[in-house]
Task: inverse folding
C-alpha cells in the first residue's frame, strides 16, 4: 500500500524570498519606481541650488546640510512609498497574494525590504550629487563619513514605517496626500534624531559626539519599537 505524500507548504523564508524577488524583478523590468525617485531627487536638488544660490559661505551650508539631506530623503521616499503597491493594485496581484497561504507578516517584511533596497539605491546615487553640488567647496569635518550610521538607521525606519502607512492608504481616495499626512508626524522623532546626528557628523565639533551617539541610539530604539509594532499590526491592516 503506497503512502500518499502531502506536500509541505513553503517555509516563511521561501515565501519572503519569492515576494522580494517578485518586487525586484518587476522593478528591474519597468524601472518606474527608481527612475521616478531619482528624477524627483534631482529636481529637489535643483530647487535647493536655486534657494541657496546667494549663500556664499560654504560653512553656512554645512551647518544645515543635515536638514537639507534628510528633507531630500524623506520627500523622495514618500514618492517611492506611494508607488510601492501600484503594480499589485493595478493588476489585482494583491488580492491573489492575500488569497494564498502566506503569512501577512512575511508580506510586510518582503515589501519593507524591497522599499529599503530601492531607497538605498537612490541614496547611493543622490548623496554624492548632494556633496558635489553643495559641499564641494566647503570645509567639511573629518567626521563626515560618520553620517553613514544615521543614514542607515534612518533609512531602515523610513522603509519599515512607510510600508505600514502606505498599506493603510492604499485604497483611499487621495492616498498621496493621506500618506504624507500620516507619514510626516509619525516619522518626526526618527527624523529629528537622524538630523541631529547627521549635523553633528558634518560639523565635527569636539565635545558634541555624546549627542551624536545619543541621537543614533534614539533612532535605533525608534526603529525597533515601530517596526515591531508595524509587523504585529500588518495582518489587521491588510484584512481591514
Result:
Amino acid at each position: 500500500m503506497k503512502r500518499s505524500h502531502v506536500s509541505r507548504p513553503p517555509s516563511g523564508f521561501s515565501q519572503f524570498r519569492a515576494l522580494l524577488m517578485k518586487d525586484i524583478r518587476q522593478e528591474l523590468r519597468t524601472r518606474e519606481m527608481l527612475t521616478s525617485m531619482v528624477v524627483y531627487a534631482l529636481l529637489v536638488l535643483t530647487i535647493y541650488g536655486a534657494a541657496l544660490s546667494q549663500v556664499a559661505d560654504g560653512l553656512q551650508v554645512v551647518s544645515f546640510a543635515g536638514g537639507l539631506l534628510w528633507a531630500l530623503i524623506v520627500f523622495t521616499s514618500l514618492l517611492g512609498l506611494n508607488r510601492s503597491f501600484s503594480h499589485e493594485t493595478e493588476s489585482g496581484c494583491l488580492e491573489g497574494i492575500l488569497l494564498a497561504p502566506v503569512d501577512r507578516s512575511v508580506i510586510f517584511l518582503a515589501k519593507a525590504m524591497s522599499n529599503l533596497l530601492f531607497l538605498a539605491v537612490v541614496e547611493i546615487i543622490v548623496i554624492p550629487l548632494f556633496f558635489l553640488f553643495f559641499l564641494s567647496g566647503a570645509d567639511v569635518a573629518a567626521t563626515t563619513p560618520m553620517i553613514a550610521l544615521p543614514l542607515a538607521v534612518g533609512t531602515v525606519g523610513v522603509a519599515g514605517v512607510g510600508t505600514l502607512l502606505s498599506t493603510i492608504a492604499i485604497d483611499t481616495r487621495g492616498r498621496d496626500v493621506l500618506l504624507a499626512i500620516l507619514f510626516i508626524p509619525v516619522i518626526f522623532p526618527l527624523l529629528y534624531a537622524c538630523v541631529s546626528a547627521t549635523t553633528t557628523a558634518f560639523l565635527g565639533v569636539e565635545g558634541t559626539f555624546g549627542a551624536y551617539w545619543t541621537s543614533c541610539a534614539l533612532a535605533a530604539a525608534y526603529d525597533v519599537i515601530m517596526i515591531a509594532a508595524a509587523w504585529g499590526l500588518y495582518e489587521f491592516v491588510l484584512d481591514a
Notes: Residues 104-135 form the longest helix (32 residues). DSSP finds ten helices and no strands in the chain.
